[in-house]
Write a structure and sequence with these properties.
- The chain has helices at about 5-25, 30-65, 80-95, 95-100, 110-125, 140-145, 150-165, 190-205, 235-250, and strands at about 130-135, 170-175, 180-185, 210, 215, 220-225, 255.
- By secondary structure, the protein is of the alpha+beta class.
- Helix 1 (about 5-25) runs antiparallel to helix 2, helix 2 (about 30-65) packs parallel to helix 3 (about 80-95) and helix 6 (about 140-145) packs antiparallel against helix 7 (about 150-165).
- The radius of gyration is 26 Å and the shape is elongated.
Length: about 260
């Protein structure tokens, strides 16, 4: 393992060697300037990198302490700070409490807290994304006619449908009741997003069978795209929620892009 001290000593020693050579061979003043500027520049650059990593580790540790799943830490460092970063990163992955706090117990999807955390991380990375705010149509009669056990079974099947419509890197979440969110990371072109939405609409309109029960649902979907439709997670969610309700007012079982 390369020690943290070597990270500083080797480049500083190289800068001192170059400066000394210039002092001895050419103009002494020039050599001293090169030596001082070189050493200070190296120290400043390395210190900024280390402070950035230490700040990331602090934020990660705080998120784990608060029961949140942290973002991945860089693991390419092979010194003491790299080992510490790797150890802190493993804390979040191995913390079942954090996983449970961010997971919907019925469907196994991310819950509101989990999806908001993932979206917040995407916003911090300035990663573009598309947000689908989905409210199921005709779900309430399922609970009323067949009971909550049947309703829960339908929600599980809906979760499977939504999972089948997205990539592994995307997020499907259940906010509660019959409201869901799908986050498509890096997918902002209207044609590509609309293709996914149409596929969701196609599958959700197919009958869902519970033994001999035939359940027919629909979905109202509001679509927003970051960053143009919202400068924050809250603003993007609000825009998607309003767009979804506009679909419901227009007759339900459809989708609309925010405008």
């Amino acid at each position: 393992m390369r020690k943290l001290s070597q990270r500083y000593i080797v480049p500083v020693a190289a800068a001192l060697a170059v400066g000394t050579a210039l002092v001895l061979v050419t103009v002494p003043l020039l050599g001293l300037i090169v030596m001082v500027v070189g050493v200070l520049g190296i120290l400043a650059g390395l210190t900024r990198q280390d402070v950035r990593l230490i700040t990331q580790m602090r934020i990660t540790a705080e998120r784990v302490e608060n029961g949140m799943i942290p973002d991945a830490l860089p693991t390419d460092r092979v010194d003491e700070l790299g080992q510490l970063a790797a150890a802190i990163g493993r804390l979040g992955k191995n913390d079942p409490t954090a996983e449970q706090a961010n997971t919907d117990p019925l469907t196994g999807l991310a819950n509101r807290r989990g999806v908001l955390q993932k979206m917040d991380a995407a916003f911090r990375r300035s990663q573009p994304l598309a947000l689908l705010y989905i409210d199921l149509d005709k779900f309430k009669p399922v609970n009323d006619q067949y009971g909550h056990e049947a309703g829960d079974a339908v929600l599980k099947k809906v979760a499977e449908i939504f999972r089948a419509c997205v990539r592994d890197e995307d997020t499907v979440a259940r906010l509660g009741g019959d409201e869901f969110i799908i986050v498509l990371y890096g997918l902002t072109e209207r044609e590509m997003v609309e293709e996914r939405v149409k596929r969701i609409m196609e599958l959700i309109n197919e009958p869902i069978w519970l033994n001999d029960l035939r359940i027919k649902l629909g979905a109202s979907i509001g679509v927003t795209v970051a960053p143009q439709d919202g400068a924050s997670v809250e603003a993007l969610l609000q825009a998607a929620d309003e767009t979804m309700y506009a679909v419901k007012k227009a007759g339900r079982n459809g989708y609309r892009f925010y405008s």
